[in-house]
Design brief:
Number of domains: 1
Helix content: over 70%
Number of strands: 0
Strand content: under 5%
Order of helices and strands: HHHH
Amino acid sequence: MTLIDYNDIYYQSETLAMEVEGMSDDTLIEECNHILTSNLRSITMDSIISSYFKNGGLTSEQRKNAIGFYILAYGEFGWES
């Protein structure tokens, strides 16, 4: 039987959220692009990255989606584990 320590889960979740919220658009796009080089695929993220390189920035909606992708990849999938 595995016991879950919710304090550890909460700490990890909050630390990840603080990390990604403090990233510049450049860093966030670089990190998401790096994630996409693995076996994870996202048509939405591909579109956001293309738009970023075309326009030189992210809209608030694109940034929100990129942050969600990053958190999902690292938090839920344990991408680098």
